[in-house]
Design a protein that fits this description.
The complex is a heteropentamer of chains A (300), B (336), C (310), D (320) and E (597).
Chain A (H helix, E strand, L loop, with lengths): L19 H10 L1 H23 L2 H4 L26 H37 L1 H16 L2 H11 L5 H9 L4 H15 L2 H8 L4 H12 L1 H16 L1 H8 L10 H6 L4 H6 L1 H29 L7
Chain B lengths: L3 E14 L2 E14 L3 E5 L6 H9 L5 E9 L2 E2 L5 H7 L4 E4 L13 H12 L5 H14 L5 H5 L8 H13 L5 E5 L7 H18 L2 E6 L2 H7 L2 E6 L2 E7 H6 L4 H9 L46 E5 L2 E4 L10 H11 L1
Parallel strand pairs in B: 3-8, 3-9, 6-7, 7-8
Antiparallel strand pairs in B: 1-2, 1-4, 4-5, 9-10, 10-12, 11-12
Chain D lengths: L1 H28 L15 H11 L5 H13 L13 H36 L4 H15 L2 H15 L18 H38 L2 H8 L4 H38 L5 H11 L2 H29 L7
Helix pairs in contact in D: 1-11, 4-5, 4-7, 4-9, 5-7, 6-7, 6-9, 7-9, 8-9, 9-10, 9-11, 10-11
Classes of the chains: A mainly alpha (300), B alpha/beta (336), C alpha/beta (310), D mainly alpha (320), E alpha+beta (597).
The structure holds adenosine-5'-triphosphate (2 copies) and magnesium ion (2 copies).
């Protein structure tokens, strides 16, 4: 008995607290979310993979002799009013819309997380100032600024578009992270780190941030769902991408034309359904993740 | 017989974890008489609250087996409507955390008078208010008229706990369950609250189940004490007997780990309370924490034995129990 | 020269209000507290919730801004944040109340205990691991635990990890703010025993903050009792527990439940008496704001807050 | 209470000033101006230039801005170039329409969201709840404009139940009962289309709020009092869950503003959203700046309103 | 009036991929689906065929197609937007009417005589021409309109060369004179205007023929007129209908003007309501409107068989074109400066680019033949001046290649794109306006077509330009963006054919910045006194049309048609000019519009 005996195996359900495995388990348990995730991964692989072999220039090539073809052997999803292959546009459009969604989510997420973290961690005047900034951005007329941007910026690309959209979408996550950081900084482990001589910077990023990781993953996922459709509204108002950069929004907004809406479903409906499915799938995954982070709602 | 208020027989309460049910309260049998305080002690997670909630039938997703007879009425099979008549009237409960037990958006007065309203529908508004003020006075809240219109967050912890008590006693329950009523409070306030409960007991002639992990509180309040470990009652006895002549190794260890005068080294129980999921379902559940006692002395499926009148102990391992000096040595060695 | 000396410490928190959210008043969390610690001894700080115990402790280690007063550690002024040099910071460490929240759940034990080492000392990965394992052994945990996460430990074990972390820099003074109040009695015993053991081994000085007089009595050599940010009484353990002088101290001592059920009635009566005394002599011990007076020595070691005589 | 409002307004005021500067600069950055549209060889470019000078369109933005501010301070929002009428009159006309549209949308939103959220939250994880959450997911994913277009198609043209454009039938005298009914008829479909989408977030919020509240300790207290389930829900859970929704109310305004641009343009509904879009396209600056300013103020006031509502209904942060 | 016209047509008419790609003739058979028909504007009437018996009274609903609210500046002297003009047409009219060649006739509310030298016009207003309030329309009112428009405070867009051509107008406008010396009121109903320059343009639309009711506006400040309730809420005119009520921006209800000078209108009233372009077809089908102000030709093929309407059609006074930037605008002197060094300065390059595009196919495929290949810069809407015999430049990519080869534009580095004669890379930046639905594929098509002949044309900034920035960059303020090499746009031609406003040396709207002495000469000749003689003028303009084909500063791409569906219950409806039909003739056969089957 001459042994340190205190070290007991606490429990058999030893699981890594990384959060990731909890998230993963929740998804696997939730059939809908699992199917959604598989669907998403397949879509992404398909869309990004196949678009490597597609020639965007060829797809958006106008063909006067193939205008408004309904789906047939040559054009699986028919053609649009420029005689362009809708299926090809759908693939590239999905890729572009996904890229925009991901970019916007990442950019706005990064800004939001940084500001929220700093604001929540330091609190006080910094927090006050940051929150006023958030308030202010909330009331900015997003649409107008985007419209101005579209008209004055000559390089209207996926990148610049994502940047400008991100400028108006970081506030939500900043608020969330801030409130979590405010809670987190009251926890003793943060105080402990201070007494152990860690710098604020270190504490914020090495200590606090990992503890917010699951909530960040969840919100980013849900944001991604929202951001995929973000340019469709602008396309509808006529401020979307040029047609040479197909996107789901561009395809859907063809439905603006009553003739297209009524008689030529193949142009807009697949895109509309695809965006719906994508958003639902991402949302399903996000909701499952959300349940995972909220112990009380966890299934099983 | 007529003195018997509550009779619990072979009560098991199981929670669903994953695909299986695990018993947080396992085969508990006990009785409570009128005008008696039964203390229940045990470590965190030993199933004290689960037991209390079972008696009140407040679990929403637990499987309850066995019988709970309150005045010979079985609560386990009771319909929701009948249960609602009992709750808050014949039996009432004081909760552990006064900070969260009150509705933050409801006036104090309203929360107390709700309990009255539910069981005395014929009382007029005015009568109710009067009774609430009386109750607030009774639990020692100064300026009750003023507090009546306050909200929970405007009161201190001690005050809130008094409000919770006022709610519990509003209909003069025969059975009062107090689940760690003072854990969240300062010593001085704890003393006041305990005084209050004692006073109320005398006034109401109620049976009280007092759940706590503070042995001092039990020593001051209880007539009889039940010690719980891992969902089971391991020892029940009259309070003096238990404190002076504890039998179960767990009870002994508990008593020994309280800092008392002249004690240089406190006793330590090795290991930790096993979690619900990996409870040994067979054999003495405390066995793993006294490794120096030979396994053979533990019973296969221990039951409560009445060793003396009114003194019950589970598992006969207590007859072989001694505090392990070796283990203390081991700890020292570990350090050096 | 005292080991640690706190002189007339005041810590105020602003109350914001008014149209412009200006500071309209102050919470006097700590209001003129003075005491000193001897090396190798344990000093207990008791008082009811909100009396300023934690704030005092946190001010010493530098988690709270000091409004006025002085904190001297081995004769050096460490009152302001800036004056806390690296070495000084190493000398004072803290054990936190909640073993669950004081360890970062996302970090492995190795990272948790190595955090101070990484901040103050340069070690190779190997050295660092060795040091951490040594520390784990010191607190009675198996060295293999370094790759585990905090939630894989019980409360008592976690508290030991917290202590190991505090010990990593070989501090001289440890501030223990309610180190066991979140733990079960049996686990409490484990931690308290262990704290005493390492104190002897490493010649540590403790500032033990608790509202559990049982623990204070068990652990401390000197005790200070706080009430609403002020000291009401200070003395050795014996003085405080056997001859409490201030009415508040008496009340506090009387409120401790007795573990012996036979003493029940006696204890109850004693408490009643103290309560009566408290009610009748309240004005003798507290000023018009309900605050304690400043301390007067009644013996070498025993001081009580009483109105100035004469 | 008043102190609180005053303080908020003090914070708000600079926000509005900065907002106005930003939109003014932005308006100036846009290519073209109100006169760009007059591409007509019969119109003398010199005459246009003359007008431009007269309207001050050639001044640097800060001069125009200060002129504009001078006007605004005197309650004069300027003159719409396109409509040849004071912006304030124009906005007044449009604002009334948008106000009713928003109000009806809000009513629809809450009339749908509260029952759905309550059902979904109370009986969570039942098939009914799944159906409702399914709807919220789809509503979340479906672009507003597609929903609205389909609504017009189905209910406007296919069934012919509702008028599909404008705010009132032509030729009716304001003030008469027919006028009122006609107005209402014209509002129903756009308001409903928008509400179908705006409901979603409220339902989701309410649902999780109820699920959250269900687990609170004070609910156990209520049950322990002997309160039947119905009372537990009605008096405790719903009441506590609806409060945050009440506070949400003010923030809805920002959402309504964004949505109105789509809805009004699809339903040819002459409101602020349509006015905004037209004015941007036609560079009617005085209107653009005024509309955006009003949007901004509405959003700010909405946020303020939310804070105030919350501080009134929630005793924990009640401000005396 | 001419106006910048965004290419707002949409392409809906489909042609399925017929056999080979180069056939200019449409192929009606093959794998084509039902919508592949080709149409011709010649098959449409300008006047509605009447079926059934008209009833007395009834009201007509006129759909004003617009995605914005109408401005509500309901007076000819102040309006600026087309929607307002559409409304004005119903209740107010010009004093002079014109025939199908846009020459003023004498069967309007007023008649005119021209002096020998062509400088002095004498107008006589009919005796029974009265304002809606019963006051007579007087010469004084006509003068007043001129005085208001010429007033320095006037805030409408009308003041321009038509007015400065009146004697004494500039002095009056500058504030140097209190009256306009060139306008004399002879008596109540007679007005005399003296013009500085006598040109044939005067009788084709260069006279201001809209009086302003002085008894109403007389006491008003000029600056306040356009915003006054008399313009916005209770507008007045002397047309066949009177405004009864207005829902701002949405609808106008009108009742008949029993006192109308031509006689009592057949209809009891007219309702004009704004309808969104997206719902035009549905409104027509459901009888929500009887007719509309505009109907996009690309919607026609899908709805050609709508049972309850008849389509009226005519040739539109507009054409699309592609312009080449050949110089800049000199703001100082207000004239075009042509730069012989410009990127597009080589006429062969320009002509090759014309050869390279197949406008016939574009018209057939995108517009089902309702837009068609344009040959010259005077569209067939002006039959007197459009040179039918001139075939323009035909689609001939081989010729294009040859021209380029000869001009030295050859591919030297093997990237399939030609370099310029100096061997430098040639990238041509193409500005095209967004707005029209088909705009983008159309621009794309042109780029592809040019690529076929080896020219590297890139869309400016890689996308279409929004209306305002397009015109800004093309140079409507005189600041030409050097990044633009070529651009595509459209012009609406005024009722006066005179092209000086678009191609003159001093026209800021001469966006190509082309100028030459010969051009100046021809344009001047077109409006000289000689040109009063129709044949002379025709000769000059035929020569000019050919000259522009040779020089190619711009080349026309498509001519356009206008279609208007009208409910079958409507009688006597007409579109265009010179039909000898008037709005008071319009009648209906039943109370409610006929609904589509
Ligand atoms: N709703 C529940 N679902 C699953 N397990 C539960 C539930 N409630 C309690 N348990 C488990 O049942 C066991 C007993 O819990 P209980 O709350 O009764 O302990 P306790 O003795 O009251 O502890 P404490 O002193 O901490 O209050 C614990 O292991 C706990 O995790
Ligand atoms: N950051 C802060 N801002 C404002 N007030 C504070 C802050 N920290 C502490 N206080 C106040 O200071 C007083 C003293 O608090 P402190 O935490 O030191 O008390 P304590 O004696 O440790 O109590 P406990 O036993 O509850 O831990 C309390 O009234 C508390 O509300
Ligand atoms: Mg418990
Ligand atoms: Mg504390």
């Amino acid at each position: 008995m001459n042994k340190v005996n205190a070290d007991v195996q606490a429990s058999d359900q030893v699981r890594s607290p990384s959060g990731f495995s909890i998230l993963w388990r929740e998804i696997v348990r939730d059939k809908v979310a699992l199917i959604s995730l598989i669907l998403l991964i397949l879509t992404c692989m398909f869309v990004y993979g196949i678009s490597l072999f597609l020639d965007q220039g060829e797809i958006v090539k106008v063909d006067l002799f193939a205008i408004h073809e309904p789906p047939n052997d040559q054009f699986i999803l028919g053609t649009d009013y420029g005689g362009r292959d809708v299926f090809g546009q759908l693939i590239i459009g999905t890729r572009n819309s996904l890229s925009i969604g991901i970019l916007v989510t990442l950019i706005s997420g990064t800004v939001g997380i940084l500001l929220g973290l700093i604001s929540g961690y330091f609190g006080g005047h910094i927090d006050n100032a940051a929150m006023r900034l958030v308030d202010f951005f909330m009331v900015l007329p997003t649409l107008m600024i985007v419209i101005v941007f579209v008209t004055i910026v000559s390089d209207y690309s996926i990148w610049s578009f994502s940047l400008i959209m991100s400028a108006f979408l970081w506030m939500g996550i900043a608020r969330l992270i801030r409130s979590k950081a405010l809670q987190e900084r009251e926890l003793d482990y943060v105080q402990a780190s201070k007494t152990l001589g860690s710098s604020n910077f270190k504490i914020m990023f090495a200590q606090v941030l990992p503890n917010l990781s699951s909530i960040i993953i969840v919100t980013m996922t849900l944001n991604l769902a929202a951001n995929i459709g973000i340019e469709s509204g602008l396309s509808f108002l006529g401020f979307g991408f040029p047609e040479s950069t197909p996107s789901l929004g561009t395809l859907i907004s063809y439905a603006r034309n009553p003739q297209t809406l009524e008689f030529r479903w193949w142009i807009w409906l697949p895109a509309a359904i695809l965006i719906l499915i994508l958003m639902l799938a991402i949302n399903n995954v996000g909701q499952a993740l959300k349940r995972a982070t909220d112990a009380r709602q966890r299934r099983g | 017989m007529s003195n018997k208020l509550l009779e619990i027989k072979n009560l098991s309460t199981s929670f669903r974890i994953g695909d299986d049910y695990y018993a947080a309260v396992d085969d508990v049998t006990l009785t409570l008489n009128k005008n008696e305080v039964l203390g229940i002690v045990g470590e965190s997670g030993s199933g004290k609250s689960a037991l209390a909630f079972s008696i009140m039938r407040l679990h929403n997703r637990a499987k309850i087996e066995g019988s709970i007879l309150l005045n010979d009425q079985d609560i386990v099979d009771m319909s929701a409507a009948n249960l609602n008549k009992l709750r808050g009237d014949d039996m009432a409960m004081i909760f552990q955390d006064p900070l969260t037990a009150l509705n933050p958006l409801m006036e104090i007065g309203e929360q107390i008078s709700e309990a009255l309203l539910l069981h005395n529908p014929r009382m007029t508004q005015k009568q109710r208010k009067q009774r609430v003020i009386e109750l607030l006075n009774l639990v020692g809240i100064p300026r009750p008229e003023f507090v009546y219109e306050q909200f929970p967050h405007e009161l201190s912890g001690g005050m809130r706990q008094r409000v919770v008590i006022a709610i519990a006693i509003s209909n003069k329950p025969e059975l009062l369950i107090a689940d760690e009523p003072t854990t969240a409070l300062d010593v001085t306030i704890q003393a006041q609250i305990l005084d209050l409960i004692r006073k109320l007991k005398e006034e109401m002639n109620a049976g009280i189940i007092l759940i706590t992990h503070d042995l001092g509180v039990v020593a001051e309040m209880a007539d009889r004490v039940a010690v719980m470990y891992a969902g089971q009652i391991v020892e029940i006895a009259e309070v003096h007997t238990l404190f002076e002549n504890p039998l179960h190794p767990y009870t002994k260890s508990l008593l020994n780990s309280v800092p008392t005068e002249g004690q240089d080294k406190l006793h330590v129980i090795q290991g930790i309370v096993p979690s619900l999921k990996n409870l040994p379902r067979k054999g003495c559940r405390f066995a793993s924490r006294i490794p120096w006692i030979d396994a053979s002395v533990h019973e296969e499926n221990p039951v409560l034995h009445e060793v003396k009148p009114g003194h019950f102990v589970r598992c006969s391992c207590h007859t072989h129990f001694y505090f392990s000096e070796e283990s203390k040595e081991a700890e020292k060695n570990g350090i050096s | 020269m005292a080991f640690l000396e706190v002189k007339d410490l005041q810590i105020y928190f602003p109350i914001k209000g008014g149209v412009f959210n200006r500071t309209v008043g102050h919470i006097k969390a700590v209001d003129g507290v003075s005491f000193s610690l001897e090396q190798g001894k344990t000093y207990g700080l008791v008082g009811e919730s909100g009396s300023g115990k934690s704030t005092t402790g946190r001010a010493i280690i530098g988690l709270e801004n000091v409004t006025s007063g002085q904190i001297l550690f081995e004769g050096k002024d460490i009152t302001s944040m800036k004056s806390k040099t690296k070495d000084l910071r190493k000398d004072i460490q803290m054990i936190f109340q909640d073993p669950y929240s004081s360890l970062n759940p996302k970090k492995r034990v190795l990272d948790i205990i190595a955090e101070p080492l990484r901040n103050f000392e340069m070690h190779s990965k190997q050295e660092e691991k060795k040091k951490v394992q040594d520390l784990l052994e010191l607190v009675g945990l198996s060295p293999e635990s370094i790759l585990k996460y905090p939630h894989q430990f019980s409360g008592g074990q976690r508290q030991r990890i917290g202590v190991a972390r505090a010990l990593a820099l070989k501090p001289k003074l440890i501030i223990a703010d309610e180190p066991v109040s979140a733990l079960d009695v049996s686990v409490q015993a484990q931690v308290l025993n262990f704290m005493r053991e390492i104190q002897d081994q490493l010649n540590l000085t403790y500032l033990l903050i608790s509202h559990d007089l049982g623990i204070i009595k068990h652990m401390c050599d000197h005790i200070g009792i706080m009430y609403k940010g002020r000291y009401v009484e200070e003395g050795t353990k014996e003085e405080i527990f056997t001859k409490p002088h201030h009415i508040y101290s008496k009340r506090l001592v009387a409120a401790i439940p007795d573990i012996n059920p036979r003493m029940r009635e006696k204890q109850y009566r004693y408490r009643q008496e103290v309560q009566e005394e408290y009610n009748s002599s309240y004005n003798d011990y507290f000023d018009h704001e309900g605050l304690a007076y400043s301390l007067q020595s009644i013996s070498d070691t025993h001081k009580v807050a009483l109105p100035k005589r004469g | 209470m008043w102190k609180f409002i005053v303080r908020r307004l003090f914070v708000t005021f600079p926000q509005i000033v900065i907002l106005s500067v930003i939109i003014f600069i932005l308006a100036q950055m846009m290519p073209g101006d109100a006169l760009t549209g007059l591409i007509d060889p019969n119109i003398d470019p010199a005459a246009i230039e003359e007008q431009r000078e007269r309207l001050g369109l050639n001044n640097p933005w800060y001069v125009q801005y200060s002129d504009w501010v001078k006007g605004v301070v005197q309650g004069d929002l300027g003159q719409s170039f396109r409509y040849k009428m004071p912006v304030s009159d124009l906005i007044e006309q449009r604002m009334i329409n948008t106000f009713w549209l928003s109000l009806l949308t809000l009513i629809f939103t809450y009339a749908m969201a509260i029952p759905l959220g309550i059902i979904s939250g109370r009986w969570n994880d039942t098939w009914l709840d799944r159906a409702i959450t399914g709807y919220t997911y789809i509503g979340f994913a479906a672009p507003l404009f597609i929903t609205a277009l389909l609504m017009v198609w189905v209910f406007g043209f296919h069934f012919g139940w509702f008028p599909t454009g404008g705010s009132v039938a032509p030729g009716l005298t304001p003030g008469t009962f027919e006028y009122f009914i006609s107005k209402l008829q014209h509002l129903l479909l756009p308001a409903f289309s928008m509400a179908v989408i705006t409901t979603v977030s409220t339902v989701q919020y309410l649902r999780s709020e109820i699920i959250d509240t269900k687990q609170k300790d004070f609910i156990v207290t209520a049950r322990a009092k002997g309160a039947p389930e119905s009372r537990v829900y009605n008096r405790h859970i719903f009441r506590n869950s609806l409060l945050p929704i009440a506070a949400f109310f003010g923030y809805e305004i920002s959402g309504l503003i964004g949505g109105s641009i789509f809805i009004e343009s699809i339903f040819s509904f002459p409101g602020m959203g349509q006015l905004f879009l037209d004015s941007v396209l036609l560079r009617d600056y005085s209107v653009v700046t005024s509309v955006v300013l009003i949007f901004g103020i509405a959003a700010i006031l909405g946020a303020l309103l939310s804070d105030i509502i919350l501080s009134i209904v929630d005793p924990r942060i009640r401000i005396k | 009036a001419c106006s910048g016209d965004s290419d707002d047509g949409q392409s809906e008419g489909t042609d399925s991929g017929s056999d080979s790609g180069d056939s200019a003739e449409a192929d009606d058979e093959g794998e084509s689906d039902s919508e592949s028909e080709l149409y011709s504007i010649d098959d449409f009437n300008q006047i509605k065929t009447n079926e059934g018996e008209a009833i007395d009274g009834g009201t007509l609903t006129f759909g004003l197609v617009s995605d914005t609210a109408f401005e509500g500046t309901l007076n000819w002297n102040f309006y600026s937007g087309d929607p307002d003009a559409q409304i004005l047409d119903w209740f107010d009219e010009a004093l002079l009417t014109w025939d199908e060649n846009y020459v003023y006739t004498n069967d309007g509310a007023a008649t005119y005589e021209i002096s020998e030298d062509g400088h002095v016009f004498t107008f006589t207003i009919g005796d029974n021409v009265n304002w809606h309030d019963g006051e007579p329309v007087t010469a004084e009112d006509w003068l007043f309109a001129h005085e208001v428009i010429g007033h320095p405070d006037y805030d409408g867009p009308r003041y321009g060369s038509d007015f400065t051509n009146i004697e004494g107008m500039e002095e009056y406008h500058a504030g140097e004179a209190d009256t306009i010396s060139g306008i004399k009121v002879i008596d109540d109903k007679t007005l005399e205007i003296t013009y500085i320059q006598a040109t044939p343009s005067l009788v084709t639309g260069s006279i201001w023929t809209y009086p302003l009711a002085k008894h109403i506006f007389g006491d008003m400040e000029v600056a306040e007129m356009s915003a006054s309730p008399e313009v916005r809420e209770n507008p007045i005119g002397f047309g066949p209908f009177k405004v009864e009520s207005i829902v701002p921006g949405e609808s106008v209800t009108m009742v008949k003007n029993e006192d109308y000078w031509r006689g009592e209108p057949n209809l009891d009233g007219v309702t004009v309501k704004v309808i969104n372009p997206n719902v035009v077809v549905q409104e027509l089908e459901s009888g929500g409107v009887d007719t509309v102000s505009a109907f996009q030709v690309d919607q026609y093929p899908d709805n050609a068989d709508m049972s309850n309407v008849e389509y009226l059609g005519r040739i539109d006074r507009s054409y699309s074109y592609i312009g080449f930037k050949l110089g800049t605008w000199d703001k100082e002197n207000g004239e075009v400066v042509t730069d012989p060094e410009a990127k597009m300065a080589d006429v062969n390059l320009r002509k090759a680019m014309w050869h390279a595009v197949d406008n016939t196919t574009v018209g057939e495929r995108f517009y089902n033949g309702l837009r068609w290949n344009a040959t010259t810069l005077i569209p067939p809407s002006h039959p007197e001046f459009h040179d039918d015999s001139n075939a323009g430049v035909s689609y001939d990519p081989e010729a294009a290649k040859q021209l380029l080869d000869e001009a030295g534009y050859v591919d030297v580095d093997g990237d399939n794109f030609r370099e310029n004669p100096d061997g430098e890379e040639l990238v041509i930046n193409f500005a095209s306006m967004s707005g029209g639905e088909v705009a983008e594929p159309l621009a794309q098509y042109y780029i592809q077509a040019w690529e076929q002949v080896g020219l590297n044309v890139q869309l400016l900034d890689g996308r279409l330009q929004e209306f305002n920035s397009f015109y800004d960059r093309v140079g409507q303020n005189g600041d030409d963006d050097p990044a633009v090499d070529i651009y595509s746009a459209a012009w609406g031609v005024g009722i006066d054919v005179d092209p000086r406003g678009l191609y003159g040396r001093d026209a800021i709207f001469n966006f190509s910045r082309y100028s030459s002495d010969k051009n100046d000469e021809l344009l001047a000749a077109g409006v000289s006194e000689d040109a009063f003689e129709l044949e002379n003028r025709q000769k000059v303009y035929n020569e000019w049309q050919q000259f522009m084909i040779d020089e190619v500063p711009v080349f026309p791409t498509l001519y356009r048609s206008e279609l208007v569906p009208v409910n079958n219950r409507v009688h006597n409806y007409y579109i265009g000019d010179g039909t000898n039909m008037y709005r008071y003739d319009i009648a209906v056969t039943q109370e409610e519009p006929i609904v589509a089957e």
